[in-house]
Design brief:
The structure holds two protein chains of two kinds. Chain A has a single domain, classed as OB fold (Dihydrolipoamide Acetyltransferase, E2P) (Beta Barrel), CATH 2.40.50.840. Chain A has one helix and eight strands. By secondary structure, chain A is mostly beta strands. Helices cover about 5% and strands about 35% of the residues of chain A. Chain B is an alpha/beta fold. The two termini of chain B are about 20 Å apart. Classes of the chains: A mainly beta, B alpha/beta. At the A-B interface, strand 4, strand 5 and strand 6 of A face helix 6 and strand 5 of B.
Chain lengths: ~140, ~400
């Protein structure tokens, strides 16, 4: 399980992304859905990229997805990540469609594979910030 | 849309010394490259009426091109700085050509340099480049730059069975070419075993699948095809150029294994009226080995998924079907950051001039240059030739 040493820079929410981060704080994955055409999207945007409607609503995603691709990092990006090595950086395709970057945690990095089902898990980095991660889905 | 085909030519080209160059500052590398390119073109600085630079990571200026103009004491009517590298570095030549053909200026000096190695140190350079990811949605996960490209490599391996040994063949070819280039930073030949046994950085990418951190600069002089006949070297004509732009962040990529190099290449081929089989030498952006494999596919040199097999057996080496990165590329010649793809252009010019000595491609008439920036985000393809045809 990855830890969040103090040196790791905390993400700074913006007005546009605040509802996502509030969701994370509650250990809940929130993404946007367009009320006009139904498309889901991530990261959060002012309007729907499919139909340009501004009627985008925040909805709770299932938290389930699959690994689109991954890498096991052996040379950390900064000293703050040294203790995490080796760690898995992955792209995950959510069940609803959007894809995002994350870490795959709570497993041996060698077990991670493309197409592997994963589920969301949240790591509390501070009182305000919890970071979305994924772990292998329980069968 | 009026075609730029054959309307603009490169009449001056020069590299500074590259690799470890501690005795020159970033700014000095820019102006040294510029002076050498002016000498190569046989013109004085007063004949330059357009100036383009990329910004320096080490010594940035808000108005960088104006800073270089001021330093050189030239007073252009067209003066432009681009903040980023990779594909943008090459794409700006597209803009220079448009500026020349539209009459904004006659003679453009493009100079690009940096000293990422001596000015920053390797560790600080790598750490500085880690800011490439999205601040909220990528950086919290700790991806170093190789990890972004590793995601692409892993997806390509999974989809098409590409192997680490095939990726390694790209690094081996680049190094073999660098061994014939006295200017290159890394000249000791390497083998596929050396690459796959080098330290794992971000699986499946090993240390030798990654490009260098370097100092260096390069400059070009461009002018209209009509004026180009009056210079000491035979002109190298811009026959085709095209761009493709697909995303900023890799987590938003439409597709991990097919890039916007496809659109860039198709647009360049269409302008030139040429196809992949017409190309004698290719200088392809090689910040990491899988990039070359995907570029070869997307640019039509082999079918999608065949890139791994294509790079094997010396096919991309001198004497092979398509010599790639004859100067050694970013993996063995040098990679000072933003200027990286400029060395692909200067090498293409030197190849078409027949000036490359032991690494010369026989009868090189048409060269293909491709650059990408971001994480396979922004692409530019350029076809250069000795004749307008």
């Amino acid at each position: 399980m990855m830890t969040a040493p103090l040196e790791k820079a905390l993400p700074v929410p913006t007005g546009e992304t605040q509802p996502f981060w509030e969701g994370c704080q509650n250990h809940e994955l929130r993404i946007q859905q367009c009320s006009a055409c139904g498309q889901y999207q991530f990261y959060p945007r002012l309007y729907c990229t499919a139909c340009m409607s501004e009627q985008v609503e925040w909805v709770q995603a299932s938290g389930r997805g699959t690994v689109l691709s991954f890498t096991v990092v052996y040379r950390p990006v900064t000293k703050a990540f040294t203790e995490d090595v080796p760690y898995v950086v992955a792209l995950v395709t959510l069940e609803e469609g959007p894809q995002l970057m994350s870490n795959i945690v709570e497993c041996d990095p060698e077990q991670v594979a493309i197409g592997m089902p994963v589920e969301s898990v949240f790591e509390d980095w501070s009182e305000d910030i919890a970071v979305l991660k994924f772990r292998p889905a329980l069968a | 849309m009026e075609s730029l085909r054959g309307k603009v030519a490169i009449v001056g080209a020069a590299d500074t010394e590259v690799g470890v160059v501690p005795h020159l500052s970033a700014t000095q590398l820019y102006v040294k490259a510029a002076k050498s390119a002016l000498e190569d073109a046989g013109i004085t600085k007063d004949e330059v009426d357009g100036l383009i630079t990329c910004n320096s990571f080490v010594e940035p200026y808000m108005y960088h091109a104006e800073m270089i103009a001021e330093y050189m004491q030239i007073f252009p009517r067209y003066c432009l700085n681009v903040a980023t590298g990779g594909g943008t570095t090459l794409a700006i030549l597209h803009h220079a050509a448009a500026a020349i053909t539209s009459g904004m200026c006659h003679t453009v000096l493009v100079t690009m340099a940096d000293n990422m190695l001596s000015g920053l140190s390797r560790d600080r350079a790598i750490e500085a480049m880690s800011t490439a990811g999205h601040a909220q949605f990528e950086r919290p996960y700790g991806p170093p730059i190789p990890a972004f490209y590793a995601l692409i490599a892993q997806a390509h391996m999974h989809a098409y069975g590409t192997t680490s040994e095939q990726l390694a063949a790209v690094a081996v070819a680049c190094r073999r070419h660098a061994s014939m280039n006295p200017a290159a930073q890394m000249r000791d030949p390497i083998t596929v075993d050396d690459v796959v046994n080098s330290k794992m950085i971000a699986s499946p990418l090993h240390l030798l699948d990654c490009s260098l951190v370097s100092d260096g600069g390069a400059a070009l002089i461009l002018t209209s095809a009509e004026r180009a006949r009056d210079f000491p070297h035979p002109p190298v004509y811009m026959l085709g150029v095209g761009e493709g732009h697909s995303h900023e962040h890799i987590s938003q990529a439409r597709n991990l294994t097919t890039s916007a190099a496809k659109e860039a290449g198709e647009r360049a081929y269409a302008m030139a009226g040429l196809g992949p089989t017409d190309i004698d030498v290719a200088e392809l952006y090689d910040c990491f080995t899988p990039v070359v494999v995907i570029e070869l596919e997307d640019l039509g040199f082999c079918p999608k998924g065949e890139g791994g097999r294509f790079v094997e057996g010396g096919r991309i080496e001198l004497g092979g079907e398509l010599p790639v990165n004859t100067h050694g590329g970013l993996m063995s010649h040098c990679h000072p950051g933003h200027p990286g793809s400029m060395f692909s252009v200067t090498e293409a010019v030197f190849q078409l001039r027949g000036a490359c000595g032991p690494r010369q491609v026989k009868d090189a008439n048409i060269a293909f240059v491709h650059a990408q920036g971001g994480i396979m985000s922004t692409h530019c393809s350029m076809i250069l030739g000795k004749e307008v045809g």
